[in-house]
Design goal:
By secondary structure, the chain is of the alpha/beta class. Helices cover 26% and strands 25% of the residues. It has 4 domains: 141 residues, Jelly Rolls, CATH 2.60.120.10; 77 residues, Glutaredoxin; 209 residues, FAD/NAD(P)-binding domain; 117 residues, FAD/NAD(P)-binding domain (3-Layer(bba) Sandwich). Strand 27 and strand 28 form a beta hairpin. Helix 7 crosses helix 12 and helix 10 packs parallel to helix 11. The longest helix has 21 residues. One of its GO terms (molecular function) is thioredoxin-disulfide reductase (NADPH) activity.
C-alpha cells in the first residue's frame, strides 16, 4: 500500500468524491514537476505547514507518508488523509491566498518534491494535464473539509440577528468551512467560556467568529473577516496590472478567465462573493450545456476555479469607490483607500435588486426580507408560508425552488401576468404547482413584527382588497438598479445609471467601449444589455479581444517605467485633495 492515499473521515458531504479528491499523479507527471522544484528529506513528525498558514508550497510525496490533519478540539488533531507516494499535499488554498485549513505533518521519514508558490503558478500555466488534476482535486478536498464538523471557523450568535445572517451568507457563498453555534444573546453572561476555554465572548458583542488559534473576532465586518481568513488577496499598490475586472458575476468571471488564459495579468475586484446575482439563484435551467440545470453558486465556483487555475487574483470584500485615468493608466480606489492601477478596466459590476417602498422595510432586511433563495434561506422557511415578489426569471425560479421546501408560496406581482417578463417553462411550473398561489396586479403594503418579520399585508391594486397573513420570510426580486455609483463623473451613463457603450456613440469602434479609453463595460451594468447569464458570459468572453487591441494600440504609451506612472497618479491624487 506504499503508493495509496488513505482517507479517514466520518462526515463527508453527500456529494464528496474521495477518488477525485485524492487522485494520484503519474510517474511522468512527477518527472515533469521536478523541473519546477527541489527534493527535500524530512524526518518523522515534522510540520510542513499548519493551520492558517498562507501561500504554502506544493509538496509531492516521493517516499514515506504525510498526514493531513484537521483540528479536533482540546489541542488535538484528527487525521483527514494519509498521503503516500505520488500524492500531493494541499487543498484549494494552493490556488488562493487563503490560510491553510489543514496541517501537514510527516508520519515517517519522507522524501518530498517541494515546489514554491511562484513556480507552482508557472507549472499551472505550462503543464495542462497536471494543472487540471491539481485544480480538480483541490476543489474536491475543500468539499470534503466543509463536511467535517471541526473544520474552518466557528460563527457564534443568534440566527435572528441580521449581522449573523450576513456573515454566514458571506462564508457560504465563498465556500469557506464553518460551523454555527446558536447562542441567544440574552442568555450569554459576560465572558462566558464557549469552546473548551479557547474562545470567550461578552454579552452584546455578537456575532463573533473564532479562528484556529483560539482568537475571537467580535462583531467583525465582512472586510475584516475576509482579511483574517485570507479570502481576499489585497492588490499590490506598486503594481500596474494589465486588466482590472470590477465585479465577479458571470460576465466578470468570463472576462477574467479569458484575460488570464491569454497571458494578461488580471485581478478581479468583488464586494461580496463570486457569482453576482446569478450566484444566488437556486437553479439555472436554461444555460447551455446543463440540461438538468445548475445552481448559480456552483456555476460561479467552477468559473472562479478556472480563473484561479490561470493565475487570476481576487480581491473579495472590497468595493471600488472612485476611478480616474492619468497618463493612460487607470487608478481605482477601493474602500479603505486601497489603490489598484491597471492599463485597462472591464466594468462588470452588475446590478442590485430594488427595494420595496414599504414602511419599516429596512428594519426587516436579513430579518425576514431576503434577496436570494438558496439552501441557506430555505432552512429558515421550511414548512412555513413565504412570499415571493417579482415577475422575472429569478423570482420565478425562487418560487419554484421554495415550493418544494415551504408550506406554501404566495407569489405577488404588480403586473397583470407573467407572460411578458418570464420564460414559459417557469410560468408553466408556477401555474401547475399546488404549493404556489399567484396574485397578479398586487403589491405588499404592510410589514409587521418585533424580533423579526411576522406579518405581511398585500393589496390588489385595482380593487384595493387586502390580504394579511402570518409570514416570516419575503423574497424580493423586483428588477435591478446598476452598481455604477463609483462611475459617476467618470464615464457616460444613461438616465437610469447604466453605462453607455459603443453603438451610436462609436466609442473606440467596439460595442463594449465606454467614453473613457481603455475602460470597457459588459453584463448587466451595460446600457441595453440582455439580462441573461448566457449573454453576460458571452460579453465577458468577447470583450477581452477588445482589451487586447487597445493594449496593442497603446503599447508605446505604457512603455514608461511603472514607478513614474505610479508617481504621476499619486501626484494627481494629491492635487485633487
Amino acid at each position: 500500500m506504499a503508493d495509496q492515499v488513505m482517507i479517514e473521515s466520518s462526515a463527508w458531504t453527500p456529494d464528496f468524491r474521495a477518488d477525485l479528491a485524492f487522485q494520484k499523479l503519474t510517474e511522468d507527471m512527477v518527472d515533469r514537476m521536478r523541473a519546477y522544484g527541489r527534493e527535500e528529506s524530512f524526518p518523522a513528525n515534522v510540520v510542513l505547514f499548519t493551520y492558517g498558514e498562507r501561500k504554502v508550497d506544493l509538496f509531492v510525496v516521493l517516499e514515506g507518508e504525510v498526514h493531513a490533519c484537521l483540528p479536533a478540539g482540546n489541542g488535538e488533531a484528527k487525521v483527514f488523509a494519509r498521503q503516500q507516494s505520488l500524492a500531493f499535499l494541499g487543498e484549494l488554498n494552493l490556488l488562493t491566498s487563503q490560510g491553510s485549513l489543514v496541517e501537514a505533518r510527516t508520519f515517517a521519514e519522507s522524501r518530498l518534491l517541494r515546489i514554491s508558490r511562484d513556480e507552482l503558478q508557472r507549472l499551472m500555466r505550462s503543464e495542462g494535464d497536471i494543472a487540471n488534476l491539481i485544480a480538480s482535486a483541490t476543489v474536491w478536498r475543500r468539499i470534503g473539509i466543509i463536511g467535517e464538523e471541526s473544520a474552518g471557523v466557528a460563527l457564534l450568535g443568534n440566527n435572528r440577528d441580521p449581522k449573523m445572517t450576513e456573515l454566514q451568507r458571506f462564508l457560504i457563498r465563498n465556500n469557506y468551512p464553518h460551523r454555527v453555534v446558536e447562542l441567544p444573546i440574552s442568555e450569554a453572561p459576560p465572558e462566558q467560556d464557549l469552546f473548551e476555554g479557547s474562545a470567550r465572548t461578552s454579552n452584546g458583542r455578537f456575532p463573533a467568529v473564532t479562528v484556529y488559534d483560539g482568537r475571537t473576532l467580535y462583531h467583525p465586518t465582512i472586510a475584516e473577516l475576509a482579511d483574517e481568513l485570507g479570502i481576499t488577496e489585497l492588490p499590490d499598490p506598486e503594481m500596474v496590472y494589465d486588466v482590472v475586472v470590477v465585479g465577479a458575476g458571470p460576465s466578470g468571471l468570463a472576462a477574467a478567465v479569458y484575460a488570464a488564459s491569454e497571458g494578461l495579468c488580471t485581478i478581479v475586484i468583488e464586494g461580496i462573493a463570486p457569482g453576482g446575482q446569478a450566484g444566488t439563484s437556486s437553479k439555472i435551467e436554461n444555460y447551455l450545456g446543463f440540461p438538468t440545470g445548475i445552481s448559480g453558486q456552483r456555476l460561479a465556483s467552477r468559473a472562479q476555479l478556472q480563473a484561479l487555475k490561470f493565475g487570476v487574483r481576487f480581491a473579495i470584500s472590497r468595493q471600488v469607490v472612485t476611478a480616474e485615468q492619468v497618463d493612460g493608466i487607470h487608478k481605482l480606489t477601493l474602500a479603505g483607500g486601497i489603490p489598484v492601477c491597471s492599463r485597462a478596466v472591464v466594468v462588470a459590476s452588475g446590478a442590485q435588486y430594488r427595494k420595496l417602498s414599504v414602511q419599516n422595510y429596512e428594519e426587516y432586511e436579513n430579518r425576514g426580507i431576503y434577496y436570494a433563495a438558496t439552501s441557506m434561506e430555505g432552512v429558515l422557511c421550511r414548512d412555513k408560508e413565504v412570499i415571493v415578489v417579482g415577475g422575472g426569471n429569478s423570482a420565478g425560479q425562487a418560487a419554484v425552488f421554495l415550493s418544494g421546501i415551504a408550506k406554501h408560496v404566495h407569489y405577488v406581482v404588480r403586473g397583470k401576468s407573467l407572460a411578458t417578463t418570464m420564460s414559459q417553462y417557469l410560468i408553466s411550473r408556477i401555474e401547475s404547482s399546488a404549493h404556489i398561489t399567484l396574485y397578479t396586479g398586487s403589491e405588499i403594503v404592510g410589514l409587521e413584527g418585533d424580533a423579526g418579520l411576522e406579518w405581511v399585508t398585500w393589496a390588489q391594486r385595482r380593487t384595493g382588497e387586502t390580504t394579511r397573513k402570518r409570514v416570516g420570510s419575503v423574497f424580493v426580486m423586483i428588477g435591478a438598479e446598476p452598481n455604477s455609483g463609483w462611475l459617476y463623473g467618470t464615464v457616460k451613463l444613461d438616465k437610469k445609471g447604466f453605462v453607455i457603450t459603443g453603438g451610436a456613440e462609436g466609442f473606440n469602434g467596439t460595442p463594449y467601449a465606454t467614453s473613457v479609453p481603455g475602460m470597457f463595460a459588459v453584463g448587466d451594468v451595460r446600457s441595453a444589455s440582455v439580462k441573461r447569464v448566457a449573454s453576460a458570459v458571452g460579453e465577458g468572453s468577447v470583450v477581452i479581444s477588445d482589451v487586447h487591441r487597445y493594449l496593442a494600440d497603446h503599447r508605446n504609451s505604457f512603455a514608461a517605467e511603472p514607478n513614474s506612472t505610479l508617481e504621476a497618479l499619486r501626484l494627481a491624487s494629491a492635487a485633487a485633495e
